[in-house]
Design a protein that fits this description.
Number of helices of chain A: 7
Structural class of chain A: mainly alpha
Number of domains of chain B: 2
Strand content of chain A: under 5%
Number of strands of chain B: 0
Helix content of chain B: 55-70%
Oligomer: heterodimer
Shape of chain B: flat
Number of helices of chain B: 4
Largest interface: A-B, 50 and 51 residues
CATH topology of the largest domain in chain A: Four Helix Bundle (Hemerythrin (Met), subunit A)
Order of helices and strands of chain A: HHHHHHH
Structural class of chain B: mainly alpha
Radius of gyration of chain B: 24 Å
Helix content of chain A: over 70%
Chain lengths: ~170, ~120
């Protein structure tokens, strides 16, 4: 029983941290600070994944989102930013935009809560996957090997496409 | 709970240890008046000149894009590496093919000079 209470405490702490850093990202006037708060949010979400027992997802979250996507976002910001960081991404003060944003946020919250409410998570049923990474490896190398190799081709295409987009292809 | 609790304890220790070291240093050190010279970062490289948050060249963006693709490749490598012993030769060949496809991407990036640092 005490294990459950500790688990709840960890969840509350991690969720609070994630929410605070997400708020910091939205409310920060300096866009570079927003990007740094976004990294903290990614790490908080990764901790939530670990808390839920989805270790592999947490690892992906840290490696890809906190590691690579955040670097990409910071470089993208620093590529196009105003020389004054605080004036790069000004707050929008019109009421219509605020209402539209609130409407979309409410729709997203509603659809996500409904999806969570009506889905039967293994944690609720009381059976969790013991060796998720091992199972994933078995599926990658067994049933889904074609998809696995197709993922390699997709990554290759994305590397080549990124280079061509950024530098332009040579005319032959 | 158990293995994640280890991570939690480790995380708390990594937070507590530097704070404890700083408190201990504060307890024992002499406390003269701070001056501008003393408030500079100690042994943290060269002091910055001008604003540090400024526009970058597009080259850095390409490094980040290429890095992202190979980072995702690492994600695919991880389950295979974790279960290497029990997967056998067939999985090894599959992974060699997987890496060979991605080496083409690395070769292309190299050929186009996307990895050049200027």
């Amino acid at each position: 029983m005490s294990g459950m209470i500790i688990n709840d405490l960890v969840f509350v702490a991690v969720a609070g941290f994630t929410l605070l850093s997400a708020l910091g990202m939205v409310l920060s006037r300096n866009i570079v600070h927003s990007a740094l708060a976004l990294i903290l949010t990614f790490l908080g979400v990764a901790a939530l994944f670990f808390n839920l027992g989805a270790g592999f997802l947490g690892l992906v979250q840290i490696l890809v989102y906190a590691g690579a996507i955040s670097v990409l976002i910071i470089f993208a910001i620093m590529l196009v930013m105003h020389s004054e960081p605080a004036r790069t991404n000004l707050f929008n003060t019109s009421l219509g935009t605020h209402l539209a944003g609130a409407y979309i946020a409410a729709l997203l919250t509603l659809s996500l809560s409904l999806a969570i409410w009506f889905s039967e998570l293994p944690q609720i049923k009381g059976k969790t996957v013991e060796d998720a990474v091992g199972m994933l490896a078995q599926l990658f190398m067994g049933n889904y090997v074609i998809a696995f190799e197709a993922a390699a081709v997709l990554l290759l295409v994305s590397v080549v496409g990124a280079i061509i987009l950024a530098r332009g292809a040579k005319q032959s | 709970m158990s293995e994640h609790a280890t991570i939690g304890v480790f995380l708390i220790l990594t937070l507590v240890f530097p704070i404890a070291a700083m408190i201990a240093a504060w307890l024992f050190r002499a406390k003269p008046e701070p001056s501008e010279e003393k408030l500079l970062p100690y042994e943290c490289g060269v002091d910055t000149q001008g604003p540090s948050q400024m526009r970058f060249k597009i080259n850095y963006f390409i490094y980040a894009l290429v890095f992202l693709a190979f980072d995702v490749e690492t994600i695919f490598l991880y389950p295979w590496a974790a279960k290497f012993q029990s997967l056998g030769l067939f999985a090894f060949v599959e992974m060699i093919i997987f890496i060979a496809i991605l080496v083409v991407g690395l070769w292309y990036a190299w050929k186009e000079g996307a990895l050049k640092w200027y």
